[in-house]
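Bug #77: duplicate submission created two jobs. Keeping one. Sequence:
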Amino acid sequence: MKRTITIISMLVALGQAHAAERSMVTSNQLATFFNSTTYVVTTNDNIIFDAFLNDAVKRLWTVTPYKIVGQDEFETLRTDEKNSFLIITKVVESKDKHKRPYLYLSLLMGSKDANKSLDKMTEVASIPLACESADGDIPATMLNPMVLFVQKHAENIKQKSFKERVLASFQQRLQVYNYNMSQLKGKVIYIYKSDVDANVDVSEIEAAHGSIFRFVEDDDVARVVNEKEPNTAIAFTVYPQGTEKGAYGYKMIMDVDGSLYYYYYETKPKNFLFQKNDFDMVTSSAK
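Kept job's structure:
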């Protein structure tokens, strides 16, 4: 089982944004970001999660000065375009009739119109963290690499690492990192057993590609992340419990230093877990 943090009512400042509406940071805004103070916004209603996030930031945040603030301070600060924010945003896909909330770790810029909607805040980086499930749990293990990732993503945009590659919609723009799958060569990829589709023959994959994949439980993943074990990456999923029409999910592979190598936005519930074709794509690149 994945290590989780219980969320009772995770209100996070954020209301419900529609994923397709937030614009990406411009060159001028990105320059402002690197000269800003980043305000890390706590949820105020989840002490345990706030402690995990604050600890990750204190140990891993290096790209800008930062200050940890609560919801009340955020309400005042978010209309200043010179401020940046690391915050958990709640997203409801406009096409989802069931209005399932997804939680993202987002790095946003302030906006004079931010008091109207968080959709008015420009995105520097955003990555899916969890779905609000019926049990109210979110995974804790990958929070540290994700804090590193949003910083790396900002640096990649600054350095124009994506070149002419198109950053598409909110849901798909991180797929640009799939071009880096060849960098998985030489890494051991840990994957939660629960994230593998039941139709996949795990023993067959282990026999053929045992040097690449390790099918494990959460304690193994937590150890790799906490110890920052060299030459390792984690494969994981984010998707809702329900599989009705309109649901969507994500499959990702990220290393312990926050580099993203594999990112797929899935709209068919049958593809929410890792399939044979996922393993085929990874192994063909990582050999």
